[in-house]
Amino acid sequence: MAEKTETRDGTLTTYLGDVQALVSHGLQALERQTESLRKVSHKDALPAVVHGQRLLQRQEAALRARLESFGGSPTAPVKDVVAAVAGVAAGLIDAVRPSETVKSLRDDAAFFSGLGIAYLLLYTTASGLADADTAALAQEGYEDAARMVMHLDGILPKITIEELREGNLDVTDATERVKAMVTKAWDRAQPLGV
To answer: Which of 104, 113, 137, 139 has its CA 20 to 30 A from that of 18?
Structure first.
């Protein structure tokens, strides 16, 4: 018989702590972006980042409360070091390209995609361990992340065209074509081909 090495609450605490650390790191990056995007001409960029920031603030509070209900700490030292290193790397990237709105929003889309996967794993773990409260929190987080990615998918083509035009390029507005491509790509009825 296999020896039980983890406890239910310990496993949930670990997963909650991992997602909380990810959310905290993302929040720091979005706070920096909020300041840098105040000066850009792209009217859709700042509201998207501010919405993402508010969403992460709400998620961080919910994750912190749930983590503390298990007796866990939202500020585990190892996770703080990882977040600090990642924050420095993000800061260096911001310093190299401070005025490129599309690249900032692209990074946000990548972050929220990864966050969605983290919430998917938390939901799976919580459901498998019969923790309805954590599963509900994870479901809400997953849905928030998915909506944020879809919103960024919707505004990135327009902002990309705007940035290309700011570079004095002769650009055709391809936003409708891009929307059709995105819709087709996200159609779940399409077979994977595996």
So the answer is: 104
Total domain count, the chain: 1
Q: Give the pLDDT confidence of 101-149 residue by residue, as tens digits.
A: 999 999 999 999 999 999 999 999 999 999 999 999 999 999 999 999 9
> What is the pTM for the complete model shown?
0.83
Torsion sign over Cα 126, 114, 116, 18: positive
pLDDT tens-place string over residues 61-100: 999 999 999 988 776 544 554 455 455 445 545 544 445 8
- Distances from the Cα of 119 to the Cαs of 16, 53, 106, 193, in angstroms? 9, 17, 20, 26
The Cα–Cα gap between 60 and 67 comes to: 10
Q: Check which CATH number belongs to the domain holding 117 and give it.
A: 1.20.1260.10
**Which residues touch 115 (CB under 8 Å, ≥6 apart)?**
19, 22, 23, 26, 141, 145
Residue 2 lies in a domain: no
Domain that holds residue 26: 8-185
Sign of the C-alpha dihedral, residues 146, 150, 153, 159?
negative
